[in-house]
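Example 456, ligand S-adenosylmethionine.
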Amino acid sequence: MNEDLRAHIARNGLTYHIETYGCQMNAHESEKASGVLDALGFSAAGEKREADLILFNTCCVREHAEARLSGNVGALKEYKLAKPGALIAVWGCMMQQPGAAARLAARFPFVDIVFGTNQLHHLENMLYAALIDGKRVLMAEPDETIIEGMPAKRSGASAFVNIIYGCNNYCTYCIVPYVRGRERSRKSSDIIKEIDALCGTGVTEITLLGQNVNSYGKDLEGDMSFPELIRGIDRSTGIKRLRFMTSHPKDLTEELIACYGSVKSLCEHIHLPVQSGSSRILAAMNRRYTRGHYLELVSKLRARVPEIAVTTDFIVGFPGETEADFEETLSLVREVRFDAAYTFAYSKRALTRAASMPEQLSRAEKSERLMRLNALVLDYVKQSSARYLGKTVEVLTEDISRMNSAELSGRTRTVKMVSFPGTAEDIGKYVRVGIDRVSNHTLHGKAGIDPGVKGL
Ligand code: SAM
Ligand code: SF4
């Protein structure tokens, strides 16, 4: 049957476009979808509206992403009328909410395929049903199987690798455990094999992905713990830079902290989402750590590696958050001096405990707090960037700069974005850059120029 599908795709020279919403996890899922489509003979379309298949990879963590998706799918009605043979598929977390797939299918009758987060391995069969049999496909029942060996289309020297799927934490604001299922770790041997193979294709930087990477291995008998996995990857693959996200503060162990500064490839950066500076709100969020514990973790990390970059996530306007609670969030920012932070206004999500909590804040209150938090975070981002002035940093060059086509952009081990004049031949290479100017989030400088100060 697949030969019929492949022949159809080849005969018609079919192309695809993927639109991805949400986190790195979704970005990597879309790489896998591209891998599957390429293997079937599709090619990437130059433009969304030229594509024969438009695939939306959705996110439901915040209401905003859901609203954008509905707007963007709705806008394709005319496209479908003009190009009736084209396929529109909607996939991912959002479709995994109870009844969501059926609702979307009813609201947008021109959508051909709807499927849930863990059903990518059925894509080939779904495409057969739609393209060859002319059927509409709806497949969104929960599925927690781990499928190894799916192709993924990656580009560049930096790659994502999943180590654990799902989440068992049930933070009271978060929909993820309901749509991504229970924690399931991949076998360490499969992970190491994948990284080894990536090293052979020119990848030198890996980001290990999971909703809570610290839980890695707890569901596997006799396999490695997360710190053991980090050491194992460092020891048995040729990887130069190793990162991970996301680490939950309640599970950040001494053993993991000890990896910093002792495991050579582990980069001097940790993304450690705190969410709030108020212990009262952290308890209501079911985060299971206090402000004091979080501060202690940051000082232990800095004691091991003074130059470590600490980045975080914040939610403002959680139900019941008072001005005094919010002031504690601001004071935490002053105390920790984060290198960067993703900040969000609390978004009420169906199924979660916080959705039915009294004392929901108004949109205006949440926006006002978000603006105040962003202004303060930016002060510390600028201070963090200013520390690099006059230093030389090691940059893994990722791409042509989006701001200036005569420049390249890349990141330091501490995840700072660096922009410097250069040509495309240097993409994927490590370059020493002397920093002579900084602008908020970005460092600017010249490759090969060493102002004489040993840098990071
Ligand atoms: N698993 C990671 C962790 O525990 O930190 C984060 C996963 S979540 C997809 C990414 C971020 O989205 C969270 O850290 C949180 O700040 C934010 N987030 C999750 N649910 C939210 C909600 N209901 N409203 C606003 N922000 C939310
Ligand atoms: Fe959501 Fe909490 Fe799980 Fe992160 S740890 S995915 S915030 S429930």
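Summary: The longest strand covers residues 430-439.
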